[in-house]
């Protein structure tokens, strides 16, 4: 039997044995968090339509490129800059400007707005309230990586852990969507996640050394495919 002390922080407790933010971070990055991530491919569906992604290996190649490019130079760098004290409104505006594919920009805002709503109920903080006020006033759009960064920093999550958690959560959602769309077997999905962990670790290291001029330096090929998806005749995903 688990005693009350083991939950609330007494001797031998779960919270006493690990950092106080760990369980909250698991909830924040759980694939069941209702942000709508299941509805977005962030461009890989366009590669499926063109026959460039058709199995485990080809999706793994795309996923590695997506992590190394868009997730590193856009989302992860925005999270780092927020942790370093750059103003939310400025970062939000820059993300809106650099996310050129309309569907990807809208996906970031839809998932970010939902995360802000969830965070306000489950992980409230003055910083989160500030970001929501900026969005409500029309001074910010409410992007997903910034919403995550606000919650994570308010919880006391160190930057390297926040980056790794965010990136791997994104990889998990995309892999689950690929399992349905290509389709792939469940074991293939798990193999892809294991390999993607190395790409995430490399991205966390890479983003620590990037400069402000690197913000938004994304492969044109990824963006072009994401733009083509807007006019794709048949599709499963919103982006």
Walkthrough of the structure:
With 239 residues, the protein is mainly alpha-helical. It has a single domain (37-229), classed as Orthogonal Bundle (Urease accessory protein UreF). The protein is built from twelve helices and no strands. The chain has helices spanning 4-8, 14-17, 22-29, 44-49, 56-83, 88-98, 102-122, 126-136, 144-155, 159-181, 186-207, 220-229. Helix 7 runs parallel beside helix 9 and helix 10 packs antiparallel against helix 11. The longest helix has 28 residues, at 56-83. The chain is globular, with a radius of gyration of 18 Å. It starts with a helix and ends in a 10-residue tail after the last helix. The model is unreliable at 1-17 (pLDDT under 50).
Task: Briefly note the CATH topology name.
Answer: Urease accessory protein UreF
> Which range best describes the helical content: under 10%, 10-25%, 25-40%, 40-55%, 55-70% or over 70%?
55-70%
**Mean pLDDT score:** 88
The profile of the biggest β sheet is:
none
Q: CATH H level: which superfamily?
A: Urease accessory protein UreF
Order of helices and strands: HHHHHHHHHHHH
Provide the domain count: 1
How many helical elements?
12
**How many strand elements?**
0
Radius of gyration: 18 Å
Q: What is the SS-derived class?
A: mainly alpha
Measured by DSSP, the beta-strand proportion falls in: under 5%
CATH architecture classification name: Orthogonal Bundle
For the record, give the distance between the C-alpha atoms at the N and C termini, rounded to a whole number.
Answer: 47 Å
Task: Name the CATH class.
Answer: Mainly Alpha
Low-confidence stretches: 1-17
Tertiary shape: globular
């Amino acid at each position: 039997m688990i005693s009350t002390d083991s939950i609330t922080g007494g001797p031998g407790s779960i919270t006493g044995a690990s950092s106080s933010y760990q369980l909250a971070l698991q909830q924040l990055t759980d694939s069941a968090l209702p942000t709508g991530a299941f509805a977005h491919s962030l461009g890989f569906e366009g590669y499926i339509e063109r026959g460039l992604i058709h199995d485990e290996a080809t999706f793994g190649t795309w996923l590695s490129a997506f992590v190394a490019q868009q997730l590193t130079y856009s989302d992860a760098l925005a999270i780092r800059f927020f942790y370093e004290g750059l103003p939310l409104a400025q970062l939000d505006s820059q993300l809106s400007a650099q996310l050129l594919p309309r569907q990807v920009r809208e996906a970031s805002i839809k998932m970010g707005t939902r995360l802000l709503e969830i965070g306000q109920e489950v992980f409230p903080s003055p910083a989160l309230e500030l970001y929501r006020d900026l969005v409500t006033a029309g001074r910010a759009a409410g992007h997903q990586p910034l919403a995550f960064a606000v919650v994570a920093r308010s919880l006391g999550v160190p930057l390297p852990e926040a980056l790794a958690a965010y990136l791997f959560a994104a990889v998990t959602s995309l892999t689950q969507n690929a399992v349905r769309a290509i389709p792939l077997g469940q074991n293939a999905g798990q193999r892809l996640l294991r390999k993607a962990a190395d790409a995430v670790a490399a991205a966390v290291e890479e983003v620590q050394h990037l400069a402000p001029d690197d913000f938004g330096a994304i492969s044109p090929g990824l963006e072009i495919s994401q733009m083509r998806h807007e006019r794709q005749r048949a599709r499963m995903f919103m982006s």
